[in-house]
Amino acid sequence: MMAPWDMTAAQLNAASRITGPEWAVREAEVARRRRMVSSLLRGLVYLGAAATAAVLAFLVGYILVNGVPYLTPSLFEWTYTSDNVSLMPALVSTLMMAALALVMAVPVGVGSAIYLVEYAPRGSRFVSIVRTTTETLQGIPSIIYGLFGMLFFVTALRWNLSLLSGACTLAIMVLPVVMRTTEEALIAVPDAYREGGFGLGAGRLRTVFRCVLPSAVPGILGGVILALGRCVGEVAALLFTAGTIAQIPDFAAGGAMAVFDSCRTLAVHMYVLASEGLHVNETYATAVVLLVVVVILNAAATFAAKKMRKGSGND
Amino acid sequence: MTSGTMERVTTREAAGATRTTVVPSAGAAAGAGAAGGAAPAANKMVVSDLNLYYKEFHALKDVSLTFPENQVTALIGPSGCGKSTLLKSLNRMNDLVEGCRVEGSIMLDGSDAYRDVEVNDLRRRVGMVFQQPNPFPMSVYDNVAFGPRTHGIKKRAELDEIVEQSLRDAAIWDELKDRLKKNALGLSGGQQQRLCIARALAVRPEVLLMDESTSALDPISTAKIEELVAELKKSYTVIMVTHNMLQALRVSDKTAFFLLGEMVEAGDTDTIFTTPSDPRTADYVAGRFG
Lengths: 315, 290
Prior knowledge:
The complex is a heterodimer of chains A (315) and B (290).
Chain A: H1 9-16, H2 21-67, H3 88-119, H4 125-138, H5 142-156, H6 163-187, H7 191-199, H8 204-233, H9 236-241, H10 251-254, H11 266-276, H12 280-314
Helix pairs in contact in A: 2-12, 3-6, 3-8, 3-11, 4-6, 5-6, 6-8, 7-8, 8-12, 11-12
Chain B: H1 5-16, H2 28-31, E1 43-54, E2 57-68, E3 72-76, H3 83-90, E4 100-108, E5 111-112, H4 119-125, E6 126-129, H5 140-150, H6 156-169, H7 173-176, H8 189-201, E7 207-211, H9 219-232, E8 237-241, H10 245-251, E9 254-259, E10 262-268, H11 269-274, H12 279-285
């Protein structure tokens, strides 16, 4: 037999080839194993999806079954008493609280993200420090924000337990969420849009607002929805800053000073009811309402996103 | 540096030039060579002793080059030779690159593009079409109207007229006149690129820079854009970067060959392709490297 280095390519090829039944057996074996692995993987993926859907369905179903029968008119009375345990004040307070927090957090968050992505020099140390900081802030437990809010807004600024203290605390808490998602959304916009804008003699402001932002709006709204979810679902931070009085801040009587009224959001309301343990059924009913509120708010935000995207194409 | 390039340029100049702007002062050094020719070349843009650095990297070395008015100048050379860099410094798109530093001068009609002209005004006068078609994600109409709106034109009737004229100039009006309200991202690549040309024309530029603007397109779209360029040079000065040497030969009046950040040779396109004076140019256009 020739040494391999003396062979031509064709001879080498022939010598190394496994032929006959031996090869067929091996091929069949490999194919069989491949089929097994792929069906196993497919099974795992389906299982994962099914488990997720099942948990969600069970959760929602459990709350609906336990809560819907107790959705009585008395639960929706304008004034809370310890008899009717009405959720109406909490519902209105939730909307006020979330709106106030987002009105503060969204412009600041979106603005700083625009600065970081569009204005600050790319890859600068400052940007990476701010980015690390926001990432860290995102991971801090909400009760820490609550503690800070209590020490700063409630005590130092003497705003007491109030709508404003709570909303400011929530605003600080969701600011990193809004900032990070907006940043990601802006980074995902192709540089070609920026070049196109600059190339036509548009300044940075016009380029950012007319060429870049419209494509980023859906991503930014995703962040706003996330922030909204955290506002509506927050309890710990609000116990320390907004208090638990079940009343609607009375803007009609108190004017703007009503922001200093204490109030409880739906989530806090649920927590109080559940910990008192006297109105378990009403707690479930409240949970149903909270669920519906979240679904409606998300749908509204998604609708707004669609509307805005269309608007940017036709003005 | 530039002498030698100029004599060749002047031969074609007389017929093409509509305006007779003679580049004064700083352009004089570069324009000096033209004095010997029959008609004075009207140089729209003059680059003198341009050195450009990206941080430590010396991307353009002592480049001097003139761009005659109402002619097509092609910049050719292998990848990384600096031709796109030069193109981008003509409308200061390089300003956006971190760590980019420019020495030397670039004159537009006798005024210094880096000192005397406001940058957004420069980019209006020196328009650019990019390698990848980059229409904005908005309607065809809004794409074309973006530039005029940026520069203060708000009246609907006026905008309508500009949009129609620009699309006509870019030879795409007939295809798009019924789709003005449609999103531009739905167009084909070739249509998108011609839309981008229309968008650039809508601000009434004087110079049009094309950065390998046909390299992402199919041969038919490429042919359409080449035809268009031949038409456009009647009213604009066109400067194009191309990797396609046949395209340079077909479309351009003047060609400049770049290698490793240096401009090796520039002159009449026919001369560059048939009897170049530098052996490196001869090797490149013959396809022996690059």
